[in-house]
Design a protein that fits this description.
The chain is an alpha+beta fold. Helix content is 38%, strand content 14%. The protein is built from 16 helices and 14 strands. The chain is globular and about 70 Å long.
Length: 456
C-alpha cells in the first residue's frame, strides 16, 4: 500500500514546489560527482520522519518486479513475516514498459512501495522525486554486504536510493555443436568475431543480430571499449555519447551490418527466439543472466551451448562491462519505508532468498556472501556440464568501475533505438546516430532544468 502526497518536497503530482529543489540538488550533485554520478532528492514525505509501524500492526507492501521466480523468495518472506506481507505485481520489461508504468504511477501519486529498477535508470527516478533516501533509515550500515561498485550505483551525494540486487557481467554464448561442425573457432577478439561471422554466414546462418532498439547492450559494448557517457564539470553534466570508444563500437557493428554478416532483428523477441532454437543464430553477445533466458526459451538445444569470454579489442585483453544490473528501490511515497528497506535488504542478502533468486535466473548476485559460487551454474546441464559461472565471475572482476550513469538514460535508450532503426532504413551512418542522440540528450537534460553540454 502507498500513502498519498508523500514525495520529497513536492506533492504527488510533482508540482513546481518540488522542481526547484530537485534541479538545485542535481546541479550541486554534478559539482560533487567525483566518484559518484548524481545526488538526488526523494528524502521522504516533505523531508519528514518515516512513518513507523506499531508493534503487532499488520501491513502489506506492494512490489513491482519482472525478475523470473521472484514469487518464491517473496513467499518465503511472507511465511517468516506475518505482520509485513509483500504482494508482488509482475510488470513487463519489454522496451522499458515497466519504467513507463512506474513513472506514470509516481506522477499519479500511487506508485508501489518497492520496485525493481536497473542501475542505469535510477537517476531518472530521482528526477521525478520518485525514490526514498534510505540513508536516514540506516542503509549505510549494510554497505559492506555488497560489491562496492554496485552499491555505488545507487549512492548519489550523501543519499542512498536503492539496494543492489544483481549485475550482468557480459560474455559470449555459443552453440558449440554448430561451431565444431562448421570448424569455426570461438572468437577471442572482435577481429576473430568478424572472421567467425563470415564463416558462419557461408553455412546460411548469422552469428548474431545487431538489435537496433537494445540500447542497454550497446551501452555495455561501448563501456567495454573504454567509453564514459556521462561526466561532470562543476555543476554541469557533460554527455560523451559521441566519443572515440563509442564511435569505434558503432563503426564495427555498422560494418557487420553493411556486409550482411549479422541480422538486424530485435533480440529476446519471437523471431530471435526462433532463430536461437533452430541454429539460424548460433551465438549471442549477452550477460550472465542469459543462461536462464536461453535455457527457458530454447530447451531443445540443451547441452549444446557454452559460455565464453566477451571478445576483446586487443589480443590478451581483459576489458569487460556490464549489461543491466538491478536494484530493489523504495519509492518516496512508500507508507512504511523502514519495513520496505528491511525487505529489500533481506531479499538481496539472505542465503535462502539468494538461492531461490539464483535458481530463478536473476543474474549475478550483488551480495558479497550468502551463496556458493557453484550455485550460479544453475543451468549446468543446459551448458553441457560447463562450470560457466567462472566465465562471468572473471568478467565481473574486471569490469571498468569508472562508468557512471547520469540522468535520463531511459529516454537516451529510446532515442538510440529510434535513431538506429532510422539509420538501418535509410542507410545513414551509425556515427550520425551518436551525434544526433548526444545532441538530443543534452537538450533533454537542459529541458529538465539541468546544466548540460556535449563532450567529445
Amino acid at each position: 500500500m502507498t500513502s498519498s502526497g508523500a514525495t520529497d518536497g513536492a506533492t504527488s503530482g510533482g508540482t513546481a514546489r518540488g522542481a526547484p529543489r530537485r534541479r538545485a540538488v542535481l546541479g550541486a550533485a554534478a559539482g560533487a560527482a567525483a566518484g559518484l554520478a548524481l545526488a538526488g532528492c526523494g528524502a521522504g514525505p516533505d523531508g519528514g520522519a518515516p512513518k513507523e509501524r506499531k508493534k503487532g500492526q499488520k501491513i502489506a507492501l506492494t512490489f513491482w518486479s519482472w525478475v523470473p521466480g521472484i514469487d518464491r523468495p517473496v513467499d518465503l518472506w511472507n511465511r517468516r513475516n506475518p505482520e509485513v506481507q509483500v504482494r508482488v505485481e509482475k510488470v513487463s520489461a519489454v522496451n522499458g514498459q515497466q519504467y513507463a508504468k512506474m513513472h506514470a504511477a509516481i506522477k499519479a501519486g500511487n506508485p508501489p512501495d518497492l520496485g525493481q529498477i536497473e542501475f542505469p535508470v535510477v537517476p531518472g527516478f530521482l528526477l521525478d522525486n520518485g525514490l526514498r533516501d534510505l540513508a536516514p533509515l540506516g542503509a549505510a550500515r549494510h554497505r559492506g554486504e555488497f560489491v562496492g561498485w554496485q552499491w555505488q550505483q545507487s549512492v548519489f551525494g550523501k543519499g542512498i536510493y536503492a539496494i543492489p540486487q544483481a549485475s550482468g557481467p557480459m560474455g559470449l554464448f555459443v552453440r558449440k555443436d554448430l561451431f565444431d561442425r562448421w570448424e569455426v573457432q570461438v572468437p577471442g577478439t572482435w577481429d576473430e568475431y568478424e572472421a567467425a561471422a563470415r564463416a558462419i554466414r557461408r553455412h546460411g546462418a548469422w552469428i548474431d543480430t545487431f538489435a537496433p532498439t537494445n540500447g542497454n547492450r550497446f551501452a555495455g559494448l561501448a563501456w567495454q571499449a573504454g567509453a564514459t557517457w556521462y561526466a561532470t564539470r562543476g555543476d554541469t553534466w557533460i554527455v560523451h555519447l559521441d566519443d572515440g570508444p563509442t564511435r569505434k563500437v558503432a563503426d564495427y557493428w555498422e560494418s557487420l551490418v553493411r556486409q550482411r554478416l549479422v541480422k538486424t532483428i530485435p533480440d529476446r523477441q519471437n523471431a530471435w527466439y526462433k532463430d536461437i532454437q533452430t541454429g539460424a543464430i548460433p551465438a549471442w553477445v549477452g550477460a550472465s543472466w542469459g543462461d536462464a533466458l536461453l535455457a527457458g526459451n530454447a530447451p531443445g538445444t540443451k547441452g549444446k551451448w557454452r559460455a565464453a569470454p566477451l571478445p576483446q579489442w586487443q589480443p590478451g585483453g581483459r576489458a569487460y562491462a556490464n549489461w543491466g544490473g538491478s536494484t530493489t528501490a523504495v519509492f518516496a511515497q512508500a507508507a512504511y519505508p523502514r519495513d520496505a528497506l528491511d525487505f529489500a535488504l533481506w531479499l538481496n542478502t539472505d542465503p535462502q532468498s539468494l538461492a531461490l533468486l539464483i535458481a530463478g535466473g536473476y543474474g549475478f548476485p550483488s551480495a558479497r556472501t550468502g551463496y556458493a559460487p557453484t550455485a550460479l551454474d544453475a543451468d549446468r546441464d543446459f551448458f553441457g556440464g560447463q562450470a560457466y559461472s567462472t566465465v562471468f565471475a572473471d568478467a565481473a572482476a574486471h569490469v571498468d568501475t569508472r562508468w557512471r550513469w547520469g540522468p535520463g538514460v531511459d529516454t537516451l535508450y529510446q532515442r538510440l533505438g529510434d535513431a538506429f532503426t532510422d539509420a538501418l532504413a535509410d542507410g545513414s551512418s551509425f556515427r550520425s546516430v551518436l551525434r544526433k542522440v548526444q545532441g538530443q540528450t543534452v537538450a533533454d537534460l537542459k529541458g529538465k532544468g539541468l546544466k548540460a553540454e556535449s563532450g567529445g
